[in-house]
Amino acid sequence: MEIEVKLSPVPQCIAEEILGRDELFICETTVYTMEADYFDTPDGKLKKEGLSLRLRRENERSVCCLKYRVSELARFEAEENATDIQSGVTALCARDDLPESAKDVLRSAELVPIYSSSFERKCRLMVEGLSLIELSFDYGVLKQENRLLFISEIELELKEGNDYDLLELTERLCNEYSIRPCKDTKAQRAAALTEEAFAKMLPVPGDALGVNDMFSGLFFAKTDGDKLTFYRKV
Q1: Domains in the chain, ordered, with CATH?
Q2: For the segment 27-84, what is each residue's pLDDT rounded down to a tens digit?
């Protein structure tokens, strides 16, 4: 079970300031390069069942992961080492803790890559109250075909302890740095990068945007070769 809170958007300077507060943490920063492909059927069968399936490269490790939400804070999460999606699904379906209903969906699904993510993750562990919490800062991009959303966000994951300490830490960071929680997962935001969604947006001059604007979650982008065009919802 994964219990976490996401704070997004978080400007890079604020995230780096928090990570640099050594008195908060019990270890040094660990850095990962994350690249993931998310899979579904062409008609979105997994999404309809509330499932999120990805194959992610974490530095030198390749992991297949299945998630689904069980409460506002908690998600079921199952991970298996795998170099391709089919071997990952086979390993997931062999697990005793995965519901048979989820296994049936995975076994019958004709999976194709739908969207992807690519970002750098910086992590540090802290003790909050009676709990062990991992703070991760993710900085990168979500992509569906040629449509992009740049992300700059913090995840607070409860490794040991209780929800109360996690929520106390969340509230303190939000108040101190004027940042806010975000309920949408990376998969949900990547799934929303559809051509239909972009058809309802207005182009924005790229030279009018600063770096924090691009990573604010308010602006979207399309690539055309080396050209990058930004958009904003109406």
Answers
A1: 2-186 (2.40.320.10)
A2: 999 999 999 999 999 999 999 999 999 999 999 899 999 999 998 888 999 999 999 9
3-state secondary structure of 157: strand
Give the position of tokens 């048979």.
100
Q: CB–CB of 188/178 below 8 Å?
A: no
Q: Please, which residues have CB within 8 angstroms of residue 174's CB and are 6 or more apart in sequence?
A: 7, 180, 181
pTM above 0.90, yes or no: yes
Q: What is the full DSSP assignment across 184-198?
A: --HHHHHHT--HHHH
CA distance 225 to 91: 38
Q: Residue ranges of the chain with pLDDT lower than 70?
A: none
**Which residues have a Cβ under 8 Å from the Cβ of 96 and sit 6 or more positions away?**
none
d(CA 64, CA 95): 13
